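sorry for the late reply, my laptop died twice this morning and i had to redo everyting from scratch. anyway the thing you sent over, i finally got around to it. pasting the sequence first so we're on the same page, its 211 residues, then the predicted structure underneath. double check i copied it right bc i was rushing
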Amino acid sequence: MKKAEKVEFVINKLEELYPETPIPLDHSDAYTLLIAVLLSAQCTDERVNQVTPHLFKKAKDVEEMAQLEVEEIKEIIRPCGLSPQKSKAISGLSNILIEKHNGEVPDNFKDLEALPGVGHKTASVVMSQAFGYPAFPVDTHIHRLIYRWGLSNGKNVEQTEKDCKRLFPKELWNKLHLQIIYFGREYCKARPHEPSTCPICSKVGRATLFK
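ok and here's the structure:
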């Protein structure tokens, strides 16, 4: 199957399986989404969704979060892992948002990526899901699946993102990256994985058994 045919098959199959793509992280606005995505680093969305209600009950917005002590934040978010770094980042970015951005989450990559604890992937999620800007955040699921489907060389997430943006129509990026994540969690897990029973790998995947 040619690469263009693979892309068309993937798009159609994912749309068939996931016509609706709710954002996995519970949030109420751009700020709470930013915090939730930051917390999701090396942590499951399910765990983040268990922790954020406690955090946002303590501090419902950027002003209240900036008033919390780092230690207090750290204790609340401890179940998410990396709590020393994440708590400092949450406190730091909240103060920066107040000082430099009138308490608002910036809607551009440059300012987002300048915030503590906010890398390109986190900024991409916020830009796509909070502001509707076409972006293609690549997490471990997407990196794994795009390689398995022979659409990228698997060298690094930066290359995977470039390949995804080159191969898939721009108007689909914001929905498609969520569809791929859902598919990776349900059908195309890291290990064990049997390509012959996978709805996509069985048609377009590399001839490899992942165990």
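Residues 30-129 form a domain with the Endonuclease III; domain 1 fold (CATH 1.10.340.30).
thats about all i looked at so far, will dig more tmrw
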